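Q: I'm writing up a methods section and want to include an example of the input and output format. Could you take the sequence below and give the corresponding predicted structure tokens, formatted cleanly so I can copy it straight into the document?
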Amino acid sequence: MDAIVKMLEKHQPFFEKISRNIYLQAIKDGFLGCMPIVLTSSIFLLIATLPGVVGITLPQPLIDWCNKLYNFTMGVMGIMVAGTTAKNFTASMNRRMPAGKVLNDGSTMVAAQCSMLLLAVTQFTTKFNGSELSVFDCTSMGTRGLFSAYIAAFITVWVYKFCVSRDLTIKLPKEVPGAIAQNFRDIIPFGGAVIICGIIDVVVRNLMGVPFSELLIKLLSPLFTAAETYPGLILIQAATAFFWFIGVHGPSIVQPGIDPIRLANQAENLQVLLAGGHPAHSLTFNMSLVGEFGGTGATFIVPLLLILFMKSKQLKAVGKASIVPVAFAVNEPLLFGAPMILNPYMLVPFVAAGCVNVSVAKFFIDNVGMNGFSFVVPWATPAPIGIFITTNFQLIALVFVAIIILLDAIIYLPFLKAYDKLLCDQEAERAAELGLESDGAATIAASTPAPAVEQATASVETTVADADSKPVTDQSEPTSEASTKKDVDGLKVLVLCAGAGTSAMLANAIKEGAAQTGENIASSAGAYGQHTAIMDQYDVIVLAPQVRSYYNDMKADTDRLGIKLLAPRGKEYIDLTRDPAGAIKWLRENLD
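A: Here is the clean output for your methods example:
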């Protein structure tokens, strides 16, 4: 078991480096910035379609209105993603620019959107009521154009970097107002980006006879087909779980590359469903409800197993504390509390459960008649409910849910029992050393070293932090009474995680602790990647464990703005979410 942990420790910096890749970050954060489009458009789609499932006929004007709202939001998803991806990529590039040279993220955003239209959209003329009209083919403005959006964003930002770094800009006299001068400085890079994408468009259309967006789909279709096989689905899910197991946020690495095809497949499923057919795509956006059933590692059933079948005081406590968050796919209390991250006892079930789930889902879709997922629901929707909704309320989906819950329980239980025995033995040993009865082990655990596997996890987290740069939480704790009572009055704290779920736990604890202690502290939760426009409004930013790999990039921004950056370790973070008063004390101790 120790050999497994040591092997993962050795390679973890490499995987951390992958997660910090600026292209992957830009794609992930750009897509995250457009999630309101996906979720809002889906609400109107559900209003238009679901009443018919239970025999309710809505007025046709209302259906048409809902469909229009869907088409005018989801239908321009590709254009919007081009802009948000360029904006986030610009932020990463600005950290690497020479002093005094900055790329205008507003300009790169617009240029990327224009460039995306050149790559993805076809313009032609047609006659309507005797008049000749210029028409845009909107097919690739939405999810079908996501690859074009990414290419346009990256080309645009690199062109801007090339021009700004070499002062290839139009310079106006210093008397000209800055906003006007900036517009002129952006003309050359803006024009350069648009011209390059325009040339690519002409070349591809003349050589291949299709727009650039269709070329990518055509070239990558064998890869997409392979991804929707049993081995492909298993590989995607195994990679997602494995990265998370070694402490790197797996979805951030794996999903950006497959999001375009997942969304396109889900949109195609919807069209088939509305036409009365059987949606057959299994690689869809909400397949994550199955592979990440209760969070990465398919941990939905695990808290209940801990409560019902484990004897260790530690595991029972973790089960009780995590059962509600895990139901809403926020499983960090379980991942860091048990712990499951870098726990060799948990490697096999953590990777295998999700793989089994997606395999069973594909079997049900291909052979049992269950619909492929057609609607989009928020990621925090309890998985059983989400699966039932996105399959168009099929009863067979409830049978499927019951089966994967049973299978996940069977997969996890033997490994949990083995780990439980280890913890029980350790608790008994610590109780015996202090001359106490074994039933006092829970009390002792609060004041004695963590079990060996927890120590290994903490060691790995420290190693990763040191490889980046030392987080402020690695500093020694203040010893003087004055230092623990530093003024936090009026403090504004922003907690960031990958999807604003884990961060909400600590933000709420800080709010509760402020109320208990009478402190004037405001705290908010957010998702990393959506923080750039608001971060200057805060005094302290806290990175949740799942986004600690971004510490260096974040530190450059917080230092520039004079903001305190904190990055607690996994178990420390979870402990703070459960101790509101302790969270306030921790803030005091870590303020300069």
